[in-house]
Amino acid sequence: MKGEILDKIAALVTAAFGLVAALAWNGAILAIFRAIFGEAESIPAMLIYAVIITVIAVLVTIQIARAAKRAKDEK
Fold it and tell me: Whole-model pTM above 0.70?
């Protein structure tokens, strides 16, 4: 039981740090977006931002999955 609790706490803390890192990256990417496109806070501008970030996230996720598969296959 104690081991399970520690495992869950470790998972929650790891997830929390992941969320903090994601928010930090969101702020940085949003600042870059604003530097390029100006202070546009309109719905179309925010949709463009969301689409760009989604495409980047999908591409990075695919690359990470491929790298993980290669590393697993090498073992």
Answer: no
